[in-house]
């Protein structure tokens, strides 16, 4: 027998708010001793690299090769991984060792959000995840966009929105990001050698980097940097002035050529975070620092390599919308009066995993969700999960909650279906059960 279900439209409800470890030095010393003994009885000529390769001669070890070409023996594990070598102390003569892992080019698009492209004269080539970017390329990010570029030695550069950089080779194995406008946030391995320089260059000055996490921003012909780990060497291109910028320090290179080094602002300690579907994630600094502005970023990884959205505000109030349910990483930082960004406070946020609010009120159920333009919505109730026995199939023509009463006492399955009026695409935006689990 068909059951009767009544439905009432209500007014809108309130929403409430791996590296080789030092402990293994004995093995290194033993290997070096074996290498020395072998070389005593063998007269050899050192192999010269050709097109990024080294040809093994008797007595070679991977750390010998690493130290010879890159100034440190500590990068031998990368050579071992690249060349799939099982015994790094027993290399066979005439074996060819690929040194390409230490050339930063080509770069790989690790993450991309929004519109990012390579500019070639009058052409724009849009980038997507997995694409390669070669020396000489000009990378441009659009408004609200971001791209993370990974070098072959593990260094990474995050280029946020409205930025433009030209990728240049520095020496034989180094790289320079010529920052024409915008910002670059860099993560550089600590064992990077001088032969593989990593520089940020602008018309105002140059930042030379070895093993650090830092930001560089170029705006109004002024170069700003903030160092979160390691050390950066700052040099003006207008004057002869130089400065060393250490961890927890920032610097400003002005149009006059002077360099001002200041301590970074601490991370905000009074951030209130709320998450409501479909309203989004809100991050509010309760006691903003006088004279400071604030920046908030949302990413789906803890290292903030894949930045999905970001906002700047003067009052510390931020709201991120259009996010699917799930876990997100949020960081908020204060920017001082010079424009130098301080340390960030980072949070993990669970965005409400229910896109439809379902509340029981007496003997009735109230359904509420966000209505988007050019979308048609249906609330469907059924006796089974396949929705073969429909109890209700109601097209919601009014923006507001729906109240359903006189439901059977058994488990009732529900779902809200959305159809795009322009494309005709239909999807289930949320589903669950009443009078039972879920």
UniProtKB/TrEMBL annotation:
Q: Tell me what this protein is called.
A: FecR domain-containing protein
Q: Which Gene3D superfamilies match?
A: 2.60.120.1440, LysM domain
Pfam families the UniProt entry points to: FecR (PF04773), LysM (PF01476)
Which residues does the UniProt record annotate as the domain LysM? 52-99
CDD domains under this entry?
LysM (cd00118)
- PROSITE patterns from the entry? LYSM
InterPro entries, A to Z: FecR, LysM, LysM_dom_sf
């Amino acid at each position: 027998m068909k059951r009767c279900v009544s439905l009432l439209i209500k007014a809108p409800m309130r929403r409430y708010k791996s590296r080789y470890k030092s402990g293994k030095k004995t093995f290194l010393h033993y290997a070096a001793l074996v290498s020395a003994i072998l070389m005593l009885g063998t007269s050899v000529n050192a192999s010269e690299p050709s097109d990024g390769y080294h040809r093994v001669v008797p007595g070679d070890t991977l750390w010998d090769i690493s130290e010879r070409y890159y100034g440190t023996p500590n990068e031998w594990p990368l050579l071992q991984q690249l060349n799939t070598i099982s015994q790094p102390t027993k290399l066979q003569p005439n074996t060819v060792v690929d040194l390409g892992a230490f050339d930063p080019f080509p770069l790989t698009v690790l993450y991309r959000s929004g519109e990012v492209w390579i500019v070639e004269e009058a052409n724009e080539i849009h980038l997507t995840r997995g694409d390669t970017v070669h020396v000489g390329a000009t990378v441009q990010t659009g408004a609200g966009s971001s791209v993370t570029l990974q070098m072959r030695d593990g260094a990474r550069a995050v280029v946020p929105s409205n930025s433009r950089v030209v990728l240049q080779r520095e020496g034989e194995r180094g790289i320079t990001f010529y920052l024409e406008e915008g910002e670059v946030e860099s993560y550089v391995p600590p064992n990077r050698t001088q032969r593989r320089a990593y520089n940020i260059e602008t018309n105002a000055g140059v930042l030379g980097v070895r093993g650090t996490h830092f930001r560089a921003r170029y705006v109004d012909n002024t170069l700003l940097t903030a160092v979160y780990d390691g050390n950066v060497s700052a040099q003006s291109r207008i004057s002869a002035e130089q400065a060393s910028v250490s961890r927890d320090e920032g610097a400003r290179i002005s149009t006059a050529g002077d360099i001002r080094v200041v301590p970074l602002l601490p991370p905000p300690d009074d951030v209130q975070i709320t998450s409501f579907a479909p309203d989004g994630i809100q991050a509010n600094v309760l006691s903003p620092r006088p004279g400071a502005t604030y920046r908030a970023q949302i990413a789906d990884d803890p290292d903030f390599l894949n930045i999905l959205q970001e906002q700047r505000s003067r009052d510390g109030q931020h709201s991120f919308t259009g996010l699917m349910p799930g876990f997100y990483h949020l960081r908020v930082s204060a920017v001082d009066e010079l424009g130098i960004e301080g340390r960030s406070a980072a949070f993990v946020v669970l965005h409400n995993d229910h896109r439809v609010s379902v509340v029981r009120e007496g003997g009735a159920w109230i359904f509420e969700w966000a209505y988007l333009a050019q979308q048609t919505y249906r609330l469907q109730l059924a006796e089974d999960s396949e929705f073969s026995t429909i109890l209700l199939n109601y097209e919601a023509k009014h923006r507001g909650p729906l109240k359903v009463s006189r439901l059977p006492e058994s488990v009732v399955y529900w779902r809200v279906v959305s159809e795009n009026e322009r494309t005709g695409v239909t999807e289930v935006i949320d589903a669950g059960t009443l009078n039972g689990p879920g």
